[in-house]
Amino acid sequence: MAVLFVMLIAYLLGSISTSTILAKKVAGIDIRKHGSGNAGATNTLRVLGPKLAGIVLVLDASKGVIAVLLAKLLAMPDLVVAGSAIAVIVGHNWPIFFRFRGGKGIATTIGAVLALVTVPALLAGAVGLLVLYATRYVSLAALSFTALLPLCSYLLQAPDQFVWFTSAAFVLSLWVHRANIGRLVAGRENKLGAKR
Predict the structure, then answer these.
(1) Is 38 left (phi over 0), alpha (psi -120 to 50) or beta?
(2) N or C end of the chain: smaller count of CB under 10 Å?
(3) What are the pLDDT digits (tens) for 4-30?
(4) Minimal CA–CA distance to 180: which of 148, 145, 141, 150?
């Protein structure tokens, strides 16, 4: 029962769509009907500017941190801690409170992996930032970050369950970015700072 409780709490925590809530409160809009239609920090930046986007980024990342730390605080096995990390990302991407229309989970993934595998997360994050700086493609940076997480976690000898989690996070990232991948291949992906 404790395992199911922890996983459920992680999913429900992820389902708190901060960009949807804040955009409605601050601007009176459904962020999912503007810009890319994505309920996340990048679309918030494009539609409502950097200040609100920064708040969304921090809050979404905090969801990942809290989910992992809660599982650790309750002395859950590594497999359950990793499962909670996946659950909070799934909640963000498909939130029960918002008709299962959420974001792409990268900020929440960042928070979860920082709490779970800090050094591999920092290494993969550094590469992701370099990719973002060089290309200004947020999607490519996110994919680079999540792709490197399993490798860095494995090379730095993280527990097997955490390596599995980072692999699952990468698969989730591939799925939610499938349209972006198509646009990247076709040369039609929007760059950060470009007007839609």
Answers:
(1) beta
(2) N
(3) 899 999 999 999 999 999 999 999 999
(4) 141
- Structural tokens at position 87: 């659950």
In terms of Cα–Cα distance, which of 140, 135, 157 is closest to 104? Answer: 140
Q: Give per-residue burial for 175-192: e unless 16+ CB within 10 Å, then b.
A: ebbeebeeebeeeebbee
Give the tens place of pLDDT for each residue, 39-54.
999 999 999 999 999 9
Q: Can you tell me the distance from the alpha carbon of 97 to that of 119, in angstroms, rounded to the nearest whole number?
A: 33
Q: Which parts of the chain fold into alpha helices (H)?
A: 2-14, 18-27, 41-48, 50-73, 78-93, 106-116, 118-135, 138-155, 160-176, 178-186
Instruction: Say how far residue 124 (Cα) sits from the centre of its chain.
Output: 14
**Distance between CA atoms of 5 and 142, rounded to whole angstroms?**
30
CA Rg value for the chain:
16
Burial environment of residue 12 by CB neighbours within 10 A (0 to 12, 13 to 18, 19 or more): middle
> Both tokens of residue 104?
């792409």
- What does the angle CA 74 – CA 80 – CA 81 come to, to the nearest 5 degrees? 65
